[in-house]
Design goal:
The chain has nine helices and no strands. The model has no long low-confidence stretch (mean pLDDT about 85). It has about 170 residues and is an all-alpha fold.
Length: about 170
């Protein structure tokens, strides 16, 4: 899957984003999604009402692993090379994936997309501005900014919308 033009990779990745988002929405609306939310709230209570927590967790892990493997394969085809340090290191893809989801809002379809629109440009700007200053300074600034975002709203950007609506309703009164 080596394309002469990067636009083909763009469309392939965009298609993968749409497919994964639709799978997420389908799972969230299915019985599996309800079971996963019940387990998240209280695993013991979910077990009492008849949810097979072990099986549900295994199914979720398999789906997550399969999607991660498929998308990792697309990433490998796009990059042509990666080593264990770029995937599992401190400033790695896996850490970036987690940060994008946390900053955007875990448990929502739009959260990771919104998080990517914030985290990736922020990381690039920090690298551009601070990489020539001192070794590791751009990662430090990037990390501090992400920590500040998480401290302001631990549930991610998707939780900011309802908070703003509540504040606007208070001001109208």
């Amino acid at each position: 899957m080596q394309f002469a033009d990067t636009r083909a990779s763009y469309w392939l990745m965009l298609g993968a984003l749409v497919v994964v988002t639709l799978i997420f929405i389908a799972i969230k609306r299915s019985r599996l999604g309800y079971r996963l939310r019940a387990i998240k709230e209280n695993a013991d209570a979910a077990e009492v009402i008849g949810v097979d927590t072990t099986r549900t967790k295994i199914v979720a892990a398999v789906i997550s692993g399969a999607l991660t493997a498929a998308l990792g394969t697309l990433y490998a085809q796009f990059q042509f090379f990666f080593d264990p340090d770029t995937v599992f290191g401190v400033a790695s893809i896996s850490v970036r994936m987690a940060m994008i989801a946390i900053v955007g809002g875990i448990g929502t379809a739009a959260g990771p997309i919104l998080g990517a629109f914030f985290v990736i440009p922020l990381e690039e700007i920090a690298n551009q501005v601070f990489s020539a200053q001192a070794a590791g300074l751009s990662q430090l600034v990037f990390g501090v900014l992400l920590i500040l975002v998480i401290l302001v709203e631990p549930r991610g950007f998707m939780a900011i919308g309802p908070r703003i609506r509540r504040l606007l309703r208070r001001e109208e009164r």
